[in-house]
Amino acid sequence: MTKVIIAVFDGLQPTQIDQSITPNIYRIAQEGCFFENHHPVFPSVTRINAATMVTGVGPDLHGLAGNMLVARDFDPLRVISAMEPELAEIAASSIPILHAQTLQEVLNTVDMEYIAIGVGTSGNAYVHNPRGEEVGGATIHPEFAIPSEVYSELDRRYGKWPPQVLPNTPRYEHSMNIFLDYILEERDPEVALIWSSEPDKSQHAYGVGTLESRRALHEADSQFGRLVERLGDSQKLRDTQVLILSDHGYSTIIKPVNIERELRNSELETELRTQKILIAPNGGSALLYISDSDRDLADQVVDWLVNQEWCGTILASERLGDIKGTIPSSTVSYDGSRCPDLTISFKWNSERNVEGYMGKVYSTGGESGLGQHGSMSRHEMNNTLICQGTHFKKGERMLSPSGNIDIMPTILDILEVPAPDSITGRVLKESFVGSDSKVISKTTEYQASRMFDRGLYSQRIVVSNVGTVIYLDEGNSIHEFRGD
Q1: Which residue from 55, 166, 181, 201 has the highest number of Cβ atoms inside 10 Å of its Cβ?
Q2: Rounded distance, CA 382 to CA 385, Å?
Q3: Domains, the chain, ranges and CATH?
Q4: pTM higher than 0.90, yes or no?
């Protein structure tokens, strides 16, 4: 029977796949289908993209709006981190974590199973199967498991998880031990996922393309090589389809920006202090929640934002109505019940860092020269997807737009499981053996501008569409100053 294995390398850019640093990933990229025009959903952060991978919808529909967010249906005055304790707290209040069916919920209806193991954040692992106690399957993390009894069983059989270090190889090696033995051989699920926290952790700590980050990626690739070897040796796994995936691309920080501190020094200080404005930082973007979705207050915030040199694109929810200089959040599928009223993606450029990697961006955190993501930079909105197996064409470079939103529907199609009507991603049929499917895409550009104290602010967002599926390519702004 056909199986699907997904190997995720957090923050892996297509340009980082190299014969010397990532020989195992590189070989599969040469042998299988390499999607060169693959996209995360925006914001280009991990947990919302993990949720998108397992629901086939964007954050507007699955309800996880960022790594940091305000869940107004849970607590309208609290910015929370989408980590396991906070998400479990929401679930305990009988509020759904995700507003869309997950992969395991769909597979459960046909007696199939999805098991995920990951050594990234607890929130990332949690969203793969938040209802695992009810619907089967499992998600496994160094700090917990769903169902909970799995954690104690693995602790007994494989020992304690190693401490988190940089690079995070010991934990990934431990997870690979569990993946090869317990998950693939013993549990034998129809879909299995293993998530490496590298190169993401090392790029945040040391920068994109540094010696430390290259070492981390090389060690992760070596552990992945153990899986590649097992696939070649195991008769049971002969008909396994392999997807190599990343959640987002990467940039180098120009300068960190503390929006909350800067707002405290503005005329909006009172509104910030009285929680009429809540800010959820997300690296290369920031989510702004306005009390009662007050249009007049939102307009004042926009007026302040466009005066800042670091202000890139500004999205506005339809709850606010038309605000001069903003682009509707719905143009990039980011206008759901938990999505913010205003979203700013920081300004970026395509300059190279000291290691030669393109893409620099302002950020809500970190330090200049270190790695970051979360914005609409084209270098973050292009991530990795490689597919290999009997189902896929060999040695193909796919140029058609694709995205993390397409992972779930493609897996269901491979397994011949009907997809829920709620899914908004598409099946990547153009990569299937024997398919002559032609992908017709179109590009749309959205623009908006607004005068500010010293000149004109202009923004543009570029999206690709395949049918009704929206892929955000990039978005940025220009400040034209009087006399320039």
Answers
A1: 55
A2: 10
A3: 3-250+380-431 (3.40.720.10), 253-351+360-364 (3.30.1360.110)
A4: yes
